[in-house]
Structure formats: structure tokens, C-alpha cells
Write a structure and sequence with these properties.
It holds the Pfam family Myosin_head. Residues 16-28 have a biased composition (Polar residues). This is Myosin motor domain-containing protein. It contains 13 helices and eleven strands. It is globular. It is of the alpha+beta class. The strands form four sheets. A five-stranded mixed beta sheet has the order 1-2-11-5-6, sandwiched between helices. Strands 3-4 form a two-stranded antiparallel ribbon. Strands 7-8 form a two-stranded antiparallel ribbon. Helices cover 51% and strands 13% of the residues. It has two domains: 1-344, Four Helix Bundle (Hemerythrin (Met), subunit A); 347-430, Methane Monooxygenase Hydroxylase, Chain G, domain 1 (Up-down Bundle).
Length: 439
């Protein structure tokens, strides 16, 4: 699916929407530069410093929220809204950041041809040798489970003939083979991220803790368990013992407590704690859930700290003549999730992302383009015909999306074979499979 680039302007501000991750960085830089010039010499230095902070936020966001996919080496895997705040005189006074739905599943599982979030590779390739050794890391990304691709199960393969499946598999493989991010790019972006942390006034201790948490997640991903003769989970091998020790050290946890957390499930009944042993699959699921939870909380913490950094100039605006406070204006720059078309392996999560992006595009067409054309018509001005892109397929997918969401919610409630039951229900409830098989 091709990304949509849109531009909307209102009386109170402007909004820039794009799925190209470089666009928000460029637009925010241009806006803050103009604001600095309009502010005169006395505010130029202040606005330039604020501009640096806002642009540096983009480098940090790209590291933690973007990833390489088969079709885009820098795909946004989170929605982000950057707001630039101006006073009544047009001077830039601050900014704020809002994020939407980090793609947490990518943290522990990505498809062949994709990568995990950039920051993990930047950590391995950008840190100095002594720092990397202190975190007990190697520079080999294949040494860590969450940086290795996983084979995904796709029930849509059942809709293809063997010939169709082979042809599409060949197309996907051709794209996958070309996805490479040079090490020097990761090294350069790691330096930009570190510079961004400094501009945002992260202390040296905070930065070290952030790096330790990331390294701890890499080690934690290598912890595996297997059942012994007594049908009790034990660490699988020496490598898992070492990974557990390293993860505990870097995450600031006790070895034994982390081990028990992955081995057992704790339930509280009438105030008493009851522990039940997990099996191998449940332990792996608990490990993945813990990794995703820690990374997501770390990301939220970084966003809050960045907001503190760029919002400090909003306080105590200078009053105008007569003592009134000038009204503020805002420019919004929206970086939406990256569109993707993965051929055989478009997952449910990416389907929801594409669907949400299409809904946003439809809203823009309706409220900006169609209303503008209607205004031309009322005033007797000839306007070019504007075709509504993807309207038919969007109307069809509305009903399909509601069906998919309902079935997913219903099948997730009872225990049992969730995947198998969901597949059968989806295939039987969506009879028009031609839409699923379109090129």
C-alpha cells in the first residue's frame, strides 16, 4: 500500500500528516527556524536551543520507535504527534509529544527480512568496546534471540494454490534479501541518539541506566527452560544460566526471583500466594511478556522526560500591554504508523495499522478536499474532479474489520486452541476471499 502524504491548515494552527519518518523531522526543523527568525535577535538563541531539543527528540524516537522492514529501512512502528506551541506574537515557546500504540510485538518477534527496533542494533554497533564488555555484550546480533527473525504462521496460505504460494514466496524472498542496514548507519544514529539525550538534559547516570536496561533485555531473551526428570522447569543449559545472571545484574533484579518469575505463575487466593509451575511454552511467553513490558515502560519514561525538556519554555509567558496573556497557537506534525504490504505475511497487527491509516486518510479527504470542492461549487469556481481513492475497498473492509475484531475478541475469551479456532472462524465468515488474494 502506498503511503498517503496529507497537509491540513486551520485558523488555529496547522497539521502535517505523513508516513515518511523523515518528513516530521524536516517540517519541525523548518517551523522552529522560521519562529526563531520572526522572534528577533533577543529570542534567536533561545529558539535555536529549543529547536535543537525538538529535533533531537526525533533522533531518540527513531531509535526506540522505528525499525527496518522489507520495504522501508526506517519505518515508524508507533504513531507520534509533535506539537509546536507559539505565543500570540508568533514566537516559539515550547513543544509537546504524544505517542500512540507502540508495536510491542516487534520487541520479541519480527519476521524474516525485518529488524527489531533500531536501538538494539545501535547499542551493539555504536558503543565503545569497553562499555560493551562491561554490559557483557558481543557485537554479534545473531547471539540474541530477539534480534533473530522468527517464522510466522499465516492461515491465509490455505487460500493459495501451491503454485500461487511458491510465486508469492519467491517475490517476498526477493524483497527480504535486499534489506540491509549498514553498520556505520547504526553507529552514526547511536551517536545522534546519545547527543539527543544530552540536549534533553539526561544525566550521565540516566543514560547508563537506559543502556543497561536495553542490554539486560538482550540477555533476558536468551534465558530458556526445559523440564527435568521430575517434570519441573530448570534452566536449559550453561548459556541460559549465564544469560540469567547477566540479565539480573543489568536489570537490577535478584537472580532467584527472576528465575522463579519465569518458572512459576503466582496466584493469590484469599490472601495466600499459590505458585503453579509453567511448561516450556508458558515460560517463553512469560519471558516475552516481561521483555515487552520493560521496554514499553522504558519508552514511556523517555517520552515523559522529553516532554519535560521541550515544554519548559511554556511556563510564565510574557504579558502583553494591559497585562493580558497572549493566546497560544499550535502547529501539529503527525507521523503515522508505516504502511506495509508483506505479501504472504501481513499480520493482524499490521492490518489494523493499515486500516487506521486508511480511516485517517478518508477523514482528511472528507473534511479538507471535499469541503474545499464544495466551497468552489458554491462560489461558482470550476474545480478539478477528485477521485476518492480506495473508497470501495475501504467500505468493504469496514464490515470485514468489524467481523475480525468481534471474532478475535470472542475467541480469546475461552481457554483452548485460540489460533486454530480463530482461523476457521475468519475463513468461514469472510467468504469473499478474492479481496484477500488481490495483488
Amino acid at each position: 500500500t502506498s503511503p498517503h502524504d496529507t497537509l491540513g491548515v486551520s485558523s488555529d494552527g496547522a497539521a502535517r500528516s505523513s508516513s515518511n519518518t523523515d518528513a516530521p523531522k524536516t517540517v519541525s526543523g523548518q517551523r522552529t527556524e522560521v519562529a526563531a527568525l520572526l522572534g528577533g535577535v533577543q529570542t534567536l538563541q533561545e529558539a535555536t536551543e529549543l529547536q535543537k531539543r525538538i529535533v533531537s527528540c526525533n533522533a531518540i524516537f527513531e531509535s526506540f520507535g522505528n525499525a527496518a522492514t522489507r520495504r522501508n529501512h526506517n519505518s515508524s512502528r508507533i504513531g507520534r504527534l509533535t506539537l509546536l506551541h507559539f505565543d500570540g506574537g508568533g514566537l516559539l515557546r515550547g513543544g509537546s509529544l504524544r505517542t500512540y500504540l507502540l508495536e510491542a510485538s516487534r520487541i520479541t518477534a519480527h519476521k524474516r527480512g525485518d529488524r527489531n527496533f533500531h536501538v538494539f542494533y545501535q547499542l551493539l554497533r555504536g558503543t565503545a568496546d569497553d562499555l560493551r564488555r562491561s554490559m557483557r555484550l558481543s557485537n554479534d546480533e545473531e547471539a540474541y534471540r530477539i534480534l533473530r527473525p522468527v517464522e510466522t504462521h499465516n492461515f491465509l496460505q490455505k487460500l493459495f494454490s501451491k503454485e500461487q504460494h511458491a510465486a508469492r514466496r519467491s517475490e517476498v524472498d526477493a524483497v527480504e534479501s535486499n534489506v540491509q542496514v549498514p553498520p556505520d548507519v547504526d553507529q552514526e544514529n547511536f551517536e545522534l541518539m546519545m547527543k539527543g539525550f544530552e540536549l534533553a538534559e539526561f544525566s550521565a547516570g540516566e543514560i547508563t541506566e537506559l543502556l543497561h536496561l536495553l542490554a539486560g533485555l538482550l540477555h533476558l531473551s536468551n534465558v530458556s527452560f526445559m523440564k527435568d526428570e521430575d517434570d519441573i522447569l530448570q534452566l536449559e543449559d550453561t548459556a541460559s544460566h549465564e544469560a540469567l545472571n547477566n540479565a539480573s545484574l543489568l536489570l537490577g533484579l535478584q537472580d532467584e526471583k527472576l528465575k522463579v518469575l519465569l518458572q512459576c505463575r503466582c496466584m493469590h487466593l484469599k490472601g495466600d500466594a499459590l505458585f503453579t509451575h509453567r511448561n516450556e511454552q508458558q515460560s517463553a511467553c512469560a519471558r516475552s511478556s516481561l521483555i515487552k513490558f520493560i521496554y514499553s515502560r522504558l519508552f514511556d519514561h523517555i517520552v515523559n522526560r522529553l516532554n519535560d525538556s521541550v515544554a519548559q519554555h511554556l511556563a510564565n509567558p510574557e504579558p502583553q500591554e494591559g497585562g493580558s496573556i497572549p493566546a497560544s497557537k499550535t502547529i501539529g506534525i503527525l507521523d503515522i504508523y508505516g504502511f506495509e504490504s508483506f505479501g504472504l505475511e501481513n499480520g493482524l497487527e499490521q492490518l489494523c495499522i493499515n486500516y487506521a491509516n486508511e480511516k485517517q486518510q478518508q477523514l482528511f479527504v472528507q473534511q479538507v478536499i471535499e469541503e474545499e470542492v464544495a466551497l468552489y461549487t458554491r462560489e461558482g469556481v470550476t474545480s478539478p474532479a477528485v477521485a476518492a481513492r480506495n473508497k470501495a475497498s475501504h467500505q468493504r473492509s469496514n464490515a470485514e474489520q468489524e467481523t475480525e475484531q468481534h471474532l478475535t475478541s470472542e475467541k480469546a475469551k475461552p481457554p483452548g486452541s485460540f489460533k486454530a479456532d480463530l482461523e476457521l472462524s475468519l475463513l468461514s465468515s469472510l467468504p469473499d476471499t478474492s479481496a484477500l488474494l488481490r495483488d
